[in-house]
Amino acid sequence: MSEEIIVAHQTDNISGTIQASGAKNSALKLMTASILGQGKSIIKNVPDISDIHVMSAVLTTIGAKVDRKDHELLIDTSTVDKWETPYNLVSKMRASISVLGPLVGRFGRARVAMPGGCQIGARKIDMHLIGMEQLGVEFTMDHGYLVATTPHGLHAGNIVLEFPSVGATENTMMCATVAPGHTTIDNAACEPEIHDLANFLCEMGAHIKGAGTSSIEIEGVPLSQMHPAEHSTVGDRIEGGTFLVGGALLGGPVTVTGVSPKHLHMPLVKLRQMGCDVDYDDTSITVGRTKPLVATDIQTLPYPGFPTDLQAQFMLLCALAKGNSIVTENVFENRFMFASELMRMGADIVIDDHHAIVHGESHLEGAPVKATDLRAGAALVLAGLEADGKTIIRNIHHIDRGYEDYVGNLRKLGAHVERETLSDEEISALE
Ligand code: EPZ
Question: Is 163 a pocket residue for ligand 1 (Cβ < 6 Å)?
């Protein structure tokens, strides 16, 4: 059986302008929230990536109609008549769990396959359940399925999340939208994608204040008052940040439009600390470099802290910088697999629990490597542009989950990179 791979060749520099797509990690939840709109919602600026295709299949399975026109989705949820999502789809994409809050809000019940873990961690959902239990939801397990019921109906609650979980904040907020009374969510996640979701919910008739801060207040409204709406997805700060790292890596300048610099504050601070030139205005961000990279320490934290989804990309910069860096991963329990692949290319990294000591000034050589998650995959392609020779990146389905035409965009910036299909024999020659 053949396999599609990405081949990256050493590239002197990349420069130019890239328009970021809409944020994957918002669009997926806007799609599930449309269940509460009970009609034809339009979601604009939706990236054409495989996770969106899977979520479209999830919504279709429960009875919605999803049509795509370029980067717009027309989702008719008036015909949603099921509250169960199948394992085969949830196992493909954990974010399917984001149907839980809207389904319980709309039907008072749901039967959702438990999402499995993934390469970067166990990805538990205990905080989702604890949050929704404060709203009157009761959960039982049924052969790998999570069964939610509301025997006494939904009611408001005062929720304090143990950790500012993005998913738990989203599911609880969507469920509380139609829970009678005044709900508060404290220690809520503050990511821009949460704020984007709340804006869409309010456009559909919800009364939500404070989204994007750690304290969210929700005045529940009757489901009958919720209606479809039109919304444009916020720009993808992680996709944009990935291309800006490319500018920092090879010199640039690379400009990204469609992402607010506010949403990349900490990564831009770190790029400046590493010796990069960073300029931005309201509509675009430009990163270039004329001096050698300087080591800096990175610690990932919930927003507005440094985003875990840019950790691998910055670890690559640290591997090339003058001096040693310590990268600390505080969000996921197992998100250093990228380091193991980068070491195959010549990086010198020591992992100690959730710290990675990255020795700088590595000389990277092209090698066959494997993407372990979408961000590590994207970072490996960038590594291949810097390394001597040719780098073959496998398991590129991870990258296609979150980056629309990643190779095409990099080529637009001048990168020597292409997608190829290898035959069985060629693959076994790599093993
Ligand atoms: C979202 O995942 C994003 N995914 C992730 O992006 C992102 O890395 C993450 O938020 C953090 O910003 C989507 O939005 C689809 P969490 P999510 O709940 O919601 C633990 C990418 O590359 N936790 O904030 O799953 C959890 O195990 C992806 O685009 C519990 O223990 O993240 C993790 O260690 C990767 N119990 C930490 O909290 C819970 O109930 C953060 O998880 C929930 C979470």
Answer: yes
